[in-house]
Each structure stands twice: as C-alpha cells, then as structure tokens.
From TrEMBL:
This is EAL domain-containing protein. Residues 24-277 form the EAL domain.
Length: 283
C-alpha cells in the first residue's frame, strides 16, 4: 500500500482525530438547535469616539453556552458554522436579534443605537443578503443608519463580482460597511481606493505593538491612508490607557477594547428593561 493510503487509514483510526470530528459534529448540531431555540445571546461592545469619549456605536458579538460543553468561544464555532450553511443562518439570526434590539430601544424611548454585525465570508457572496436586510429594516421599522456590517479584509481582497455588487447595493441602501481585522490580510493598500466601504478597523495585533517605534509608525500610516480615502478608522483591542492615549494623539477616530468596556449582555448595555428576555426564557 502506498504511504498516502496509510496516512489516511491512520488518521481515520486516530482517536484524537475522531474526537475532533465528533466534537465538531456536536457543535454543528448544537448550534443548529441553539439558533432555532434562540439560545444564543448577543453581547454588545461599544466603540468610543476617542476625541470626545462618547459612545459612537456598538458591535454585536455572539455568546453561546453549550448544554454539555459550556461556553464555546466564537473563535471556535464561527469557523465551523462557516463551513456549512449554518454561517448564513447564524448571521441572519444575529441580524434579526440586533434589529429587534434597535426597535426595542426606540420603543423604550432610548436614544437610537447604532449596532454593527459581523458577517461571515461565505454569506457576503450571497446576493440575497441585501434583500434580507431591506426586509428586516422594513419589518422592524428601523433606519438603515442604525445597522452596520463588518466584513473581514479577506472577503474584500477576493473582490469577487458578487461582493462588489453586494457592496454597491448596501451603499444604495445607506448601510455602512467596515473592514474588520484590517492589516492581517497582507493585501496591498492600493485596492482601498476601489472599495466602497466606510470604516477600517485596525486589527488588535497592531495595537498590541503600538508602543514600539515600528508599530507606531505602521498604525500612523494606516490612519493616514484611511483619512486620505475618507474612511473612518477604528482601533480594536485597546487594553491600556497608554494605547488609548497614543491613538487619540494620532487622531484615530474610534477605539474599542477591554480598556474601555468588555462585551456585555445587550439589554444591560442598552439599558433596556428585561421584559423581553424574561418572556423568552419562561416559554
Ligand atoms: P472580531 O469581529 O474581530 O471581534 C473582536 C474580538 O476581540 C471579539 O472576540 C471581542 O470580544 C474581542 N476583544 C474586544 N476587545 C478586546 C481586548 O481589548 N482584548 C482582547 N484580547 N480581545 C478583545 P469574540 O467575541 O471572541 O469574537 C471573535 C470573532 O468571532 C470576531 O472577531 C468575529 O470574527 C467572530 N464573531 C463574533 N461574533 C460574531 C457574529 O455574531 N457573527 C459572525 N459572523 N462572526 C462573529
Ligand atoms: Mg468585528
Ligand atoms: Mg475585528
Ligand atoms: Mg479581530
């Protein structure tokens, strides 16, 4: 038998591999059920205007507690969801929950929140996405400016025709789009001028390196390029007051990170009374 066949046979009988596969299938199945029963929670983390210190908007981040496995990090289950149609289902679930939150805030007389939702890569090549969002705005009677989308740099770099068409359509609907994890895609910055997006989020790895000479130079350059293209620029993963101060000096527009606020349950963050979630858990 050739070595490749041996390798495959080995990995098939490898108990660790089997456990991984098993765990992955558990997660997929559990996620499906959790979406259907609305057992997945949406937390919000604010983005602050660095010049004024005011809250500019929020980012929605999913939180899932698996009945057997406990809390599972999005960093683990999002990639699993992305490999199947579950990514689209999860995105639509979060979009719906966020639309409900915005509508509920308005009903309770709060200031209209602006909430950004992360969209999986595969879903962003689904031409039905703008239509789904249009329906959502209509159903919940919320303005387009209250909902934003975050997509990763990789999605935009591919620049598939469908991606461009979707960006176009969202622009016409006045839905703002950010490029998340900016700087991790090793892309040329020249493509920025062709992009129809509104915001760049500088990835945490660059913020971590901000106190070094090289790191600072890099971040300063990204901010300058963003401004040259009329893009709002956000720094993510700010953990120290020094980082916040440096970024403010560099005229970075927005800042997000544990130094300011951790992601927290949406009702608490928006100051909503919990009637809606209590009703949900009683049924
Ligand atoms: P992301 O969109 O880049 O979100 C930022 C991540 O960094 C979040 O992790 C957030 O909790 C974390 N974070 C924020 N501030 C700090 C900080 O100061 N220090 C550190 N160490 N971390 C910080 P989280 O919630 O675990 O999410 C991880 C990734 O999973 C997200 O990265 C996003 O790509 C994905 N994700 C999360 N929620 C959703 C969702 O609702 N839909 C989709 N499609 N993806 C999501
Ligand atoms: Mg994000
Ligand atoms: Mg990010
Ligand atoms: Mg990130």
């Amino acid at each position: 038998k050739d070595a490749r066949e041996h390798g495959m046979a080995f990995s098939y009988f490898n108990p660790a591999y089997h456990d991984d596969l098993r765990r992955q299938m558990d997660i997929e199945q559990g996620l499906k059920e959790a979406i259907d029963s609305r057992a997945i929670d949406v937390h919000l983390q604010p983005k602050f205007d660095l010049a004024t210190g005011r809250t500019h908007s929020y980012e929605a981040l999913v939180r899932w507690t698996h009945p057997q496995q406990g809390a599972i990090s999005p960093g683990l289950f999002i990639p699993i969801a992305e490999r199947s149609a579950l990514g689209q289902r999860l995105d639509r679930y979060v979009l719906t929950r966020v639309a409900e939150l915005i509508a509920e805030s308005l009903r309770q007389g709060k200031q209209e929140p602006v909430i950004a939702v992360n969209i999986t890569a595969r879903h962003f090549s689904d031409t039905a996405l703008p239509e789904f969002i249009r329906d959502l705005l209509h159903t919940h009677q919320i303005p387009a400016r209250s909902l934003q989308l975050e997509i990763t740099e990789g999605i935009v770099m591919e620049m598939r025709r469908t991606t461009t068409a979707i960006l176009d359509e969202l622009r016409q609907m006045d839905i703002e789009v950010s490029i998340d994890d900016f700087g991790t895609g090793y892309s040329s910055l020249s493509y920025l001028q062709h992009l129809m997006v509104d915001e760049l989020k500088i990835d945490k790895v660059f913020i971590d390196d901000l106190e070094s000479e090289r790191g600072a130079t890099l971040v300063r350059a990204v901010i300058a390029i963003a401004k040259a293209h009329d893009l709002r620029v956000t720094a993510e993963g700010i953990e120290t007051s020094d980082q916040a101060r440096i970024l403010t000096t560099m005229k970075c527009d927005l800042g997000q990170g544990y130094f300011f606020a951790r992601p927290a349950p949406s009702d608490d963050v928006l100051g909503l009374n919990g009637a809606r979630s209590q009703r949900r858990f009683r049924s």
